[in-house]
Design goal:
Blueprint (H helix, E strand, L loop, with lengths): L28 E4 L12 H17 L3 H15 L2 H9 L3 H8 L5 H4 L6 H7 L3 E5 L4 H11 L7 E3 L5 E2 L2 E2 L5 H10 L7 E5 L2 H8 L4 E5 L4 E3 L21 H13 L4 H14 L24 E3 L11 E3 L2 H17 L1
Length: 333
């Protein structure tokens, strides 16, 4: 599927869906992430992004794909996103790079969801809002293909993340505060459901609930682990991919780039930084971007639950069951 890239939109109507189906009763408002939370983006979509970025680098450099893969990895390790290295060293157009990296003519075949996902969302009590750094057209398409669009009252994609004239994607607190105010949601009623630990940590400080979904996390298993060094950022405590988002915005602001250019650049950074670098807080698995395209993928082994994570689950089935168990416990009291 090819989809248009984000432009600035005003108000909240564009991301508003029809009246949500399912169980919307109760005080809880669920703020769901999309990729690697509701569907398995590591299965096909993230690898496809990497392959398409490698092909783009090969075209620009006039080299073979093996060399292009090395350059892609090197730029990701040095700058936190391949795009930033390609802009700095080769003057590529961010919009053109984005378009090439996210061209999915067979998106329906790439989406992989767990059986029963729709039923679990239908039974989960409370309002449900999708909050994703992905473009809106992509997010809506994934929801439709997965058969779960009807359970969300609103989709907040990157197009709706403008605050006071600046793009503020996750994990920016200003964006989420504005969303909660728009929907008249008290922070203690909201629960963020995410695969990205750094986002959960950032928002836990606002007083919202946090649920970490680990079932779709994957790492790459290189034949020779010593062949590539870990990113330099991995050795610095507290430095995560979130810093890349802020650096990108600051750089675009410094060049007085239009808002559309900022948004396009950050969209790719967000997609490419779904998992923080190896060694970052919470021991989340190393990102697929840190290894060559030829490296095999294995399911990540995630053990620890950081203190700021209230609930750790592998799937929506577990989330729904835990919620049901807790509700029964409250009723018994």
């Amino acid at each position: 599927m090819s989809y248009p890239y984000p432009t600035r939109t005003h108000g909240t109507r564009r991301g508003r869906l029809r009246r949500a189906a399912g169980n919307t009763a109760g005080p809880t408002v669920w703020l769901f992430d999309l990729d690697n939370t509701l569907h398995d983006a590591s299965h096909a979509i993230f690898p496809a992004i990497n392959r398409q970025m490698t092909a783009y680098v090969a075209r620009v450099l006039g080299c073979d794909e093996a060399r292009a893969s090395e350059v892609r990895v090197a730029y990701w390790q040095r700058y936190g996103a391949t795009l930033l290295g390609m802009i700095r060293h080769h003057g590529v157009d961010a919009a053109d790079f984005l378009r090439a990296a996210h061209d999915f003519p067979e998106l329906a075949r790439m989406i992989k969801v767990r059986r029963g996902l729709a039923a679990h969302l239908r039974r989960l009590p409370g309002r449900k809002i999708l909050v994703t750094n992905a473009p809106q057209d992509y997010a809506l398409a994934v929801l439709r293909i997965a058969g779960i669009a009807q359970y969300f009252e609103r989709v907040v994609a990157i197009e709706q993340m403008w605050v006071h004239g600046h793009l503020r994607p996750k994990p920016d607190r200003r964006m989420l505060r504005r969303l909660l105010a728009q929907e008249r949601i008290a922070p203690h009623r909201a629960v963020l459901v995410e695969d990205t630990l750094s986002h959960l940590k950032r928002y836990a400080g606002m007083g919202i609930g946090t649920a970490w979904v680990t079932g779709y996390l994957r790492a790459l298993a290189p034949a020779r682990p010593q062949a590539l060094p870990a990113p330099a950022e991995a050795a610095v405590p507290g430095v995560t991919a979130d810093a890349v988002l802020r650096t990108t915005l600051a750089a675009e602001d410094g060049r007085h780039a239009p808002h559309t250019a900022q948004e396009r650049a950050v969209t790719l950074v967000a997609a490419e930084a779904q998992v923080p670098p190896a060694g970052s807080e919470g021991r989340q698995p190393p990102a697929p971007q840190a290894m060559p395209d030829s490296a095999p993928r294995v399911r990540a082994r995630v053990v620890n639950r950081p203190a700021y994570v209230k609930v750790k689950v592998q799937s929506m089935h577990q989330l729904q069951r835990q919620r049901q168990t807790r509700s029964k416990g409250h009723d018994a009291q």
